[in-house]
Design goal:
Blueprint: H1 2-43, H2 73-106
């Protein structure tokens, strides 16, 4: 009976660590994709990849708070810092899962 309980504790610790790392990895992937796309829009002054150069810009807003003609470094820095903070907090999900898994695996129960 002792081996049966011990294996369930190890299984629970593995699930805790694995699922929290899976959630953190998915979050980091989504944030990274959104960040790369936003940097691409910022670097091309708000023009999309399908923009052929014909037509009039008229200084329309690119959705990031700057006009298309204004390529400011400050806006890119704000975008980078915001993305970096979100990535750090999403990485903390995996660390919390690892800590909980270590605590779970250190407990020993005996059925007598």
């Amino acid at each position: 009976m002792h081996i049966f309980i011990h294996t369930h504790i190890q299984f629970a610790a593995g699930l805790c660590c694995g699922l929290s790392c899976l959630a953190a990895g998915g979050t980091i992937g989504i944030l990274g994709d959104a960040g790369v796309r936003a940097f691409g829009v910022k670097a091309s002054n708000g023009r999309k990849w399908y923009w052929d150069g014909s037509g009039d810009d008229n200084g329309m807003d690119d959705g990031l708070g700057t006009s298309r003609g204004n390529n400011s470094v400050e806006g890119a820095n704000k975008l980078y810092v915001g993305m970096l903070i979100m990535l750090i907090f999403s990485e903390a999900l995996a660390l919390y899962g690892l800590i909980v898994a270590l605590i779970l695996s250190q407990h020993s129960y005996s059925c007598e």
